Amino acid sequence: MNARPARPRIPLGPGAMMVIVPALAVGALVPSTASAMLVDPIRVGLAFDGPTDAGFERLATKGAEAARTARMATYDIARPAAEGPDPALLDKLADSGHQLVIAVGFQWADLVAAAAKRHPGTDFAIVDGSATTAATPALPNVRGMLFREDQAGHLAGYLAALTARADGREPVLGAVGGMRIPPVQRYIAGFRAGARAADAKARVVVHYSGSFLQGVGCGRIARRMVQQGAYAVFSVAGACGDDAMRASGAAGRTAIGVDVDQSSMGAYVLTSAIKRVDTAVRDTIADRVSGRFTAGDVRYGLREGGVGLGRISTAVPADVRAKVNHLARRMGAPARG
Known about the structure:
It is built from nine helices and 16 strands.
């Protein structure tokens, strides 16, 4: 088989670049639940906040690729040369004719609001951030894609506490947060509530590292939690949290991933509390194509297929899996795994 040719990169400014996906033919068919419609695919720009693809970026690309496969859109990716959102990327995408610009990550919130004012003819969306900021009221061309992290965390805490009991251990759990921001706090609040729903005696030890960056002490925090009796450590701290998961596994305990399926880290991972960023991105593109794009915040929970659990370890007993899936159905949708 011939290797797929590399996508060309077009400079966007100092250190920035755009990855181009070949355009589709005009008048492509877009599947519809009722019938297929002839529409022109739109141009979508994805703005990332770092030079490499992390979990959210991979999922956002997956959602855009699903829209491209369905012939709804073509997409370009713009990323900065260094870590951190670059407002110039939003302007470049809007100025180059993209009808929808999607910024990936909560750090973009204020920058998206400012760009939307500068480009009123372009629609913007932000993954994991609100359309309304403290400094900016709702704008007619900005959508926020928010997630019910508490629901995913609830299922994860419920599973962890039940698995601890099934393993003959006390339901003592740890949760390592990065920064004290609403998504992280919702994950942890749901995790604690789920653990206590499974076992009224469950205890969740919580500690915040103050950062999502690797090497800032999350491994040390996890080891301290293990010393306090934690059976599983829930990582809600980005790359720093990965250190916490590895430390828990190295100590002979278990871990729970976050945002994306992290089961590939090792057999010690019980499951992951995930956000389906790909679903949110695909749906937002579909809404823009069909004329159903609305401003304001759209929340994705279990019922919308926006959150849930990743792969569940085979070490989790079948009866625990059954109880978790039953709870998920009661909350609006079946758990995955």
